[in-house]
Amino acid sequence: MRKEPTWRIPAGLLLLLVGLAVYAALVARYIAPWIAPWPALGQMPVYVVLGVVWLLPLRRFLIWMETGRWG
């Protein structure tokens, strides 16, 4: 465990929030109008996939926040 604070954690949280906001805006701007005419059960798998896709790069990002290394 770390004994001293590091700048990476608050900076990483801010970057994560900004990244999620940008991702959500892009999905709302480009994907939502495309699938809006679909029935709700057809939209659900698309939104489930889009809701999970942003987690893929998160592991390496969290490692960087804790250790300063990307892997």
Explain this structure to me?
- By secondary structure, the chain is mainly α.
- It contains 3 helices and no strands.
- Helix 1 runs antiparallel to helix 3.
- The radius of gyration is 16 Å and the shape is elongated.
- 0% of the residues are buried.
- The mean pLDDT is 91.
Q: Classify the oligomer.
A: single chain
- Supply Rg: 16 Å
The helix fraction, in percent, is: over 70%
Tell me the number of strands.
0
H and E order: HHH
Number of contiguous helices: 3
Report how far the terminal alpha carbons are from each other: 17 Å
What's the story with the biggest beta sheet? none
Low-confidence stretches: none
Mean pLDDT: 91
- SSE class: mainly alpha
Envelope shape: elongated
As a percent range, the share of strand residues is under 5%
Structural features:
single chain, mainly alpha, 73% helix, elongated
Quick recap of the structure?
The protein has helices spanning 8-35, 40-53, 58-67. With 71 residues, it is mainly α.
Topology summary:
Blueprint: H1 8-35, H2 40-53, H3 58-67
Helix pairs in contact: 1-3
